[in-house]
Design a protein that fits this description.
Chain A is α/β, with parallel strands linked by helices. Chain A is built from 14 helices and nine strands. Chain A has two domains: 4-145 and 299-325, Aspartate/ornithine carbamoyltransferase (Rossmann fold, 3-Layer(aba) Sandwich); 147-298, Rossmann fold. Chain A has helices spanning 24-40, 66-77, 89-93, 98-106, 122-129, 147-161, 179-190, 220-224, 237-240, 248-255, 259-262, 285-288, 295-314, 318-325; strands at 55-60, 81-86, 112-117, 135-141, 168-172, 195-199, 215-217, 229-232, 270-272. In chain A, the strands form two sheets. In chain A, strands 7-6-5-8-9 form a five-stranded parallel beta sheet. A four-stranded parallel beta sheet of chain A has the order 2-1-3-4, sandwiched between helices. In chain A, strand 1 (55-60), helix 2 (66-77) and strand 2 (81-86) form a beta-alpha-beta unit. In chain A, helix 1 packs across helix 6, helix 2 crosses helix 13 and helix 6 (147-161) crosses helix 7. By secondary structure, chain B is an alpha/beta fold. Chain B folds into two domains: 3-59 and 380-387 and 414-429, Urease, subunit C, domain 1, CATH 2.30.40.10; 61-368, Alpha-Beta Barrel (TIM Barrel). In chain B, 29% of the residues lie in helices and 23% in strands. Chain B is built from twelve helices and 19 strands. Chain B has helices spanning 3-6, 81-90, 109-122, 145-150, 166-178, 190-193, 202-207, 214-231, 243-254, 291-303, 338-347, 353-368; strands spanning 8-18, 23-32, 35-40, 50-53, 58-61, 63-65, 93-98, 126-129, 131-132, 156-157, 183-185, 198-199, 211-212, 235-237, 259-264, 308-310, 383-393, 412-422, 425-429. In chain B, strands 1, 2, 3, 4, 5, 17, 18 and 19 form an eight-stranded mixed beta sheet that branches. In chain B, strands 9-10-11-14-15-16 form a six-stranded parallel beta sheet. In chain B, strand 6 (63-65), helix 2 (81-90) and strand 7 form a beta-alpha-beta unit. In chain B, helix 2 (81-90) crosses helix 3, helix 8 (214-231) packs parallel to helix 9 (243-254) and helix 9 (243-254) runs parallel beside helix 10 (291-303). The chains are: A alpha/beta, B alpha/beta. Chains A and B meet through helix 5 of A and helix 7 of B.
Chain lengths: 336, 430
């Protein structure tokens, strides 16, 4: 299994690379912790102590503002020292390999790397090569996984709906290129959602996706019939045109969520989108911020969920710390 | 004492395997002056300077590998003709065919001569080359195929590169046919492969790896078979990966079309699931496909539709595989696992020993049009002695190839090369 390297021998999170292979109880534990953090950061003083003295490096090989910012805030609220690095392809063009970059930054005594990279498997690669005790948190690798987005989507659904076992969830749009879709599907399956659907024209549905436990629909009308949750995916316009879709307007006509279409949704159905939205493509502007939409809540949930993951990986409880410190008499080794 | 006597060796009590004559029996093989002088079940009457008792071992014609990259000229940080010649000998290989995608490309007699010079210096191995089908492999203009043939190319190929259009394909095939050159096709439509790195299917989809659909191979094979129907040119399809591709080749062969095929040894063992965990050692092109494809390829090898098993050897420096999966360079260092993997097919009762030797040696020699692959008297004594029973475990660090990139590191094998003879001289033994 791909996910073994993210758990230690007692089944606790060492890295977070993908949701695939995680247990239901572990995911619920993260969501519970996130709820506690959300509660604890309601007031004016949002600072908690969990990661005091720890260093988190946001290492982004792909441009990102929103995701990076929420990771940065999450780490800051837990009192970690945070360093943001936007690495362009230029540093690798100087002959420095990805491994060189990792090792150089490890030498700065980082405890955790939050990594985004456009190659699927990048987070696994870094986890395989990271020094013992250095944690890798996947902030999106190619088309493969975006586990914290998957978790914050589950948090949002859980808050709105409670029990997953009765839920029908439709994921709409560019599934083929979407790491969000894959992480959501994994999470929904683990949490026991009743039915998971992907809704898109065939050019945007990857081969064999059914084996991830989903039903495929090529029509929005039938795909949304009876669903409790609609998750829209962001279309990358540059990538789509000509090859995957004839035009944005045709996509909007067939797959866009409009005021007219939400009338056919169940009355209590909710609408989600990982952002940033393309108004008038995946969704009509009025719908995006309408009463059924939880798009803005997703953003704030993202902070709590990322805090929870960071705290669970780095903020081991005190007995663990004491146990881990004992054998290293020399003081040369890393803390864990 | 005559020189004939001095340069003579008798290999006694070996299990002789010669698919060309159907011989599979314990007996004797005599070598004089680098050529096979005697083959028989009884001891020859004339005297030999030395006798090697090979009881319990198989004696077969040396392996002929239809596709191996030696990385020279152009990529000597990965490997050299000298380094890879040693690895080939350790793998029981006595003849290789190098594709033309070196740097510079093998599209002129000068490059052929340069490689020949390096090959002679390395020694102990027949190194043949395919010439380019188009100039610079750019797919825009025909290469000087007649000159390339004159220079010794055993076939022509455009390697993994595409052609400008289908008319270029047709003209290239016609031109090669006029020269009696076999066109070696790597059947993968570049547009459909679209820079992908994994089989299009559930595993690749789950891992989010850019896919290469089966259609990339199937459509290429269909296209070339259509042109063979028109031109009757000889086409060899190299490195099949799909059940549907193998079925197309079989149908064409049944209709009497002059098409042949090979498969890389690893494709008969590994499948898409082996990529799980983003294992870059399993990043190969064509990609590892489904278990059903692998089983169909095995069946096609058994039936002889796929007549040859090759190494598809692609040695890399460690850095080439030290990256996230899609950014690693594809390929396996395969020279030293070609024969052991094929022996596994015998152990798994897919091939008889004679069939295994046929796929490794006799048929590839025929496809390349070279005088090798048999134990006939008068042939060059390019031979391998194999101990079929010895158990061993592959340690990638001990490979003689400069490339240690193999997914079979730590795998257990039964059967190993004991000795490789080239022109009657031992070039490897253990």
């Amino acid at each position: 299994m791909t996910s073994n390297i993210q758990l230690d021998s007692s089944g606790r999170l060492k890295h977070l690379l993908t949701l695939e292979g995680l247990s239901k109880s572990l995911i619920l534990q993260i969501l519970d912790q996130a709820a506690e953090f959300a509660e604890a950061t309601q007031g004016r003083d949002k600072k908690l102590d969990h990661l005091r003295g720890r260093t988190v490096i946001n290492l982004f090989f792909e441009a990102s503002t929103r995701t990076r910012t929420t990771f940065e805030l999450a780490a800051a609220r837990l009192s970690a020292d945070v360093l943001n690095l936007q690495v362009a392809a230029s540093s690798t063009s100087k002959g420095e390999t990805l491994l060189d970059t990792l090792k150089t930054l490890e030498a700065m005594q980082a405890d955790m790397f939050v990594i985004r990279h456009d190659a699927s498997g990048a987070a696994h690669f870094f986890a395989q090569h990271a020094a013992p005790g250095v944690a890798i948190l996947n902030a999106g690798d190619g088309r493969h996984a975006h586990p914290t987005q998957g978790l914050l989507d589950m948090y949002t659904i859980r808050q709105a709906k409670g029990d997953f076992s009765k839920l029908k969830v439709a994921i709409v749009g560019d599934v083929v290129h979407s790491r969000v879709a894959r992480s959501d599907i994994n999470a929904l399956r683990i949490l026991g959602a009743k039915e998971i659907r992907v809704v898109a024209p065939p050019t945007l549905v990857p081969a064999g996706i059914e084996q991830m436990g989903v039903k495929v629909f090529h029509s929005l009308e039938t795909g949304l019939d009876g669903v409790d949750v609609v998750i829209l995916l962001r279309l990358q316009k540059e990538r789509m045109l000509g090859a995957f879709l004839p035009s944005m307007s045709e996509f909007h006509r067939d797959f866009g969520l409009t005021k007219a279409r939400i009338k056919h949704l169940k009355p209590d159905a909710i609408i989600m989108h990982p952002g940033p939205i393309n108004r008038g493509v995946e969704i009509e502007g009025d719908v995006a911020y309408g009463p059924r939409s939880l798009i803005l809540q997703q953003v704030s949930h993202g902070i709590a969920v990322r805090m929870a993951v960071m705290a669970m990986i780095l903020g081991r409880n005190s007995e663990d710390e004491a146990l881990a410190k004992k054998p290293s008499k020399s003081g040369k080794g890393r803390k864990k | 004492m005559s020189s004939t006597k001095m340069n003579s060796l008798l290999i006694a009590n070996a299990r002789l395997l010669d698919p060309a004559s159907g011989l599979d029996a314990t007996g004797f093989l005599g070598i004089r002056d680098g050529k096979i002088a005697y083959v028989g079940k009884t001891r020859p009457k004339d005297a030999y300077a030395k006798t090697l008792d090979a009881k319990g071992q198989w004696l077969m014609p040396g392996v002929v590998d239809l596709a191996a990259r030696f990385r020279e000229p152009g990529q000597t940080t990965k490997a050299t003709i000298a380094s890879e010649s040693r690895a080939a000998q350790a793998g029981g290989i006595t003849a290789v065919v190098l594709p033309p995608d070196t740097s510079p490309v093998i599209d002129s007699p000068a490059v052929v001569d340069r490689i020949r010079g390096k090959a002679l210096a390395a020694g102990g191995l027949d190194i043949h080359v395919l010439g380019a089908l188009t100039k610079g492999l750019a797919g825009e203009a025909l290469a000087e195929m007649s000159s390339l043939k004159q220079a010794g190319c055993v076939g022509v190929s455009n390697a993994a590169f595409g052609l400008r259009d289908s008319l270029m394909g047709r003209r290239a095939l016609e031109y090669a046919q006029g020269l009696g050159l076999t066109v070696h096709v790597f059947p993968q439509n570049p547009a459909l492969a679209n820079g992908g790195c994994a089989h299009q299917g559930p595993v690749g989809t789950r891992l989010g790896l850019p896919p290469i659909p089966e259609a990339a191979e199937v459509s290429a094979i269909r296209f070339w078979i259509t042109l063979v129907e028109d031109t009757e040119a000889r086409v060899h399809f190299g490195r099949l990966s799909t059940a549907r591709g193998a079925a197309l080749v079989e149908t064409a062969q049944k209709r009497g079309l002059p098409v042949t095929a090979d498969v890389a040894a690893h494709q008969l063992f590994l499948i898409d699931e082996d990529v799980e965990g983003f294992n870059a050692m399993c990043h190969v092109i064509p990609p590892l496909r489904s278990a059903a494809d692998r089983d169909a390829l095995r069946a096609a090898v058994k039936r002889g539709v796929i007549g040859a098993i090759c190494s598809d050897h692609q040695p890399h420096e460690a850095d080439a595989k030290t990256n996230p999966f899609p950014l690693t360079e594809p390929g396996i260092s395969g020279l030293e696992t070609l024969l052991p993997l094929t022996l596994r097919l015998v152990q798994e009762k897919i091939l008889t020993p004679l069939q295994a030797v046929e796929r490794l040696s006799t048929t590839p020699a025929r496809i390349a049009g070279i005088a090798a692959g048999t134990l006939a008297v008068g042939q060059s004594a390019d031979l391998v002695l194999v101990d079929p029973a010895v158990r061993w475990t592959l340690d990638a660090q001990t490979l003689l190839s400069n490339g240690h990139n193999t997914p079979f590191a730590g795998s257990a094998f039964t059967g190993q090369v004991r000795q490789t003879l080239y022109r009657g001289q031992s070039v490897f033994s253990q």
